[in-house]
Amino acid sequence: MGFLERYEGLRPGLAVGRNTNNLDFWGITFGRPTAFGLLLLIGDISWLTPNILTHMSNICLVAGAVILMKATWPAYILAAILLNVSLTFDCADGQLARYRKNGSLLGSYYDKVSDYFGMILLYSTLSWTVFTQTGHAWYFILALSALGCNMMTGYTKWLVTAHNKMPPAKVDERDPGRARTALRVALKIFEFNELDLFLWIGLGLLMNKPEIGLIVMGVTQPIAALGTVIKRGYFMSR
């Protein structure tokens, strides 16, 4: 397939649409666009499969998590780059599956399980690194807070979905326009969703302040999880 055909086939992966409820700020503004650019170059390589991209995402995340434990600013910069490259591959595997129309349940399962193993590794290595630098054990509590609440949010989503209690997404009847859509996306930075951990942890590492990511995610995730659990509990009661 030629470049223009590939461009048109992949372009839906960039679309935000009229419903942004289930989208993450950093996924919209970084993960999906960089995945789109990557697939423009390699999307038609026949032996390249979505699962291979998931492998690459896992490799980059493990490498980034291990490197940040060196606890030097150059290591933090490299780790921040690798972690966000991992996000690019993570967004690209689904885009490639939809582009080729060859997605599988096993591939989706592998992708989701990898995400949670990756979060466990990332929060574990980050909290250990900050602890060795500061001597403050409460950073482990922040890591457990963020990780546990992320998992609770994900678990309740699939629980409600499994019981067919998830209401259909509310979509604007009229096109909100580019300016309003851009404003919606910009405001999503304050939602502190799951994929946004790559933004906040990455910023902390680039600033040579790895504790920033733990503080931001450790404080915001319980608040977000509480609201989500209450809302989905209401869905289950209906």
Unreliable parts: none
Q: So, the CATH homologous superfamily?
A: CDP-alcohol phosphotransferase transmembrane (TM) domain
Span between termini: 48 Å
Give the total of domains: 1
Q: In DSSP terms, counting alpha (H) and pi (I) runs of 4 or more, how many helices? A: 9
If you compute it from the alpha carbons, what radius of gyration comes out, rounded to the nearest whole angstrom?
Answer: 18 Å
CATH top level? Mainly Alpha
- Label the CATH architecture: Up-down Bundle
Coarse morphology: globular
Furnish the topology, listing elements before pairings.
Blueprint: H1 3-10, H2 25-42, H3 50-68, H4 73-100, H5 105-134, H6 138-162, H7 177-187, H8 197-206, H9 211-237
What does this structure look like?
- This protein has 238 residues and is mostly helical.
- The chain has a single domain, classed as Four Helix Bundle (Hemerythrin (Met), subunit A), CATH 1.20.120.
- 74% of the residues lie in helices and 0% in strands.
- It contains nine helices and no strands.
- It has helices at 3-10, 25-42, 50-68, 73-100, 105-134, 138-162, 177-187, 197-206, 211-237.
- Helix 5 (105-134) packs antiparallel against helix 6 and helix 6 runs parallel beside helix 9 (211-237).
- The protein is globular, with a radius of gyration of 18 Å.
- The N and C termini lie far apart (48 Å).
